[in-house]
Every structure is written in structure tokens, then in C-alpha cells.
Amino acid sequence: MSYDLENINTLFAEIAECMHRNPARAMRLLGKAKEKVQQALERATSAAHKPGDENANAAPLYYLQDSRGYVGNCPMWSAKGGNGYTTRLDQAQRYTFDDAMRQHRSRPSDVPWPCDRIDGLRRPTVDTQDMGGVNAQVAALSAQQCQEGN
């Protein structure tokens, strides 16, 4: 949520800065800010437990962070099925409190974090390993440009 608020505050600062110089741009930025606020509210609402939700009374679950290192700015989480570590939450194992604490006591560098808290910090990113090579992309663009006659 704090990441969302930082982005929204930045947009509002830009709007205020260009209100007199470029009203059309300010209006576009205002529309963008409105979208960001709506997205932040939707994420906050979906992260909150709703009454009647079948998981509302479920015991909280935890991710285990390997605090010995990071990949870029991303923490490493214990992967599902004991398959090492991952930066992807969809591939991370979720533990009960007792299981998470048992692992933490056996290896203090494995730090339990509530899934609710961490899931609220999630944001979409792109893994460069999934994109393919830059040289192949540049070649594909060149081929496309030749086909279009540019």
C-alpha cells in the first residue's frame, strides 16, 4: 500500500506543478491518478478479510524468507515442496505458524513473514529470463521494419 501511495503522491505533485503551465497535461495526469487510487483501493480491499469469507477464520499462514541474501531487490522465499528458494510468491511455500517457527528455530536466517502482509506488498514485475534475448528482439524489430518498408 505504501508503494501505491508514493506513486499517487508523485502524480499529485506533477499535477500541481503543471496546473498553470499545461492544463491539458494536468487533466491527463489527474485521470491517471484516479486510476491509480482505484487500483490501490481494489488491492487493499481484496487483501482485507471480508465477513463471510471462507478463509476469514483460517489460521494465518507465513512465508519463510531466507534472510542471507536477495536477488536484485527481491527477497528469497522457501519454494514449494522444499525445492530451494524463489523470489516469486506464487511459487513460495506457505507455512502454519508452528511449522514456520520450527524452521526458524532450526535455522534463524529463515524468517517467517505473515502472508497477508507480504501479499499486500506484491506488485507485478517482469523476469528478464522470460523475455528472451535482446539481440533476438532487435533482429525481430529490424525484420518487421523491413517488411513494412520503413
Write the layout of secondary structure elements.
Layout: H1 2-18, H2 23-47, E1 62-71, E2 74-78, E3 85-86, H3 97-106, E4 110-114, H4 115-119, H5 128-131, H6 134-147
Antiparallel strand pairs: 1-2, 1-4, 2-3
Helix pairs in contact: 1-2
Rg (CA only):
22 Å
For the sheet with most strands, the description reads:
4 strands, antiparallel
Which ranges are low-confidence, i.e. pLDDT below 50, for 5 or more consecutive residues? none
Binned strand content: 5-15%
Total strands: 4
End-to-end CA span:
45 Å
Helix content: 40-55%
Given the C-alpha coordinates, what overall shape results?
flat
N-to-C order of helices and strands: HHEEEHEHHH
Q: What is the structural class?
A: alpha+beta
| Strands side by side in the biggest sheet | 3-2-1-4
| Mean pLDDT over the full residue set | 81
Q: What does this protein structure show overall?
A:
The protein has helices at 2-18, 23-47, 97-106, 115-119, 128-131, 134-147, and strands at 62-71, 74-78, 85-86, 110-114. The model has no long low-confidence stretch (mean pLDDT 81). It has 6 helices and 4 strands. The longest helix is centred in the N-terminal third of the chain and has 25 residues, at 23-47. Strand 1 and strand 2 (74-78) form a beta hairpin. A 4-stranded antiparallel β-sheet has the order 3-2-1-4. The relative contact order is 0.10. With 150 residues, it is an alpha+beta fold.
Any descriptors?
single chain, 150 residues, alpha+beta, 4-stranded antiparallel beta sheet, 6 helices, 4 strands, 50% helix, flat
In short:
It contains six helices and four strands, in the order ααβββαβααα. By secondary structure, it is α+β, with helices and mostly antiparallel strands.
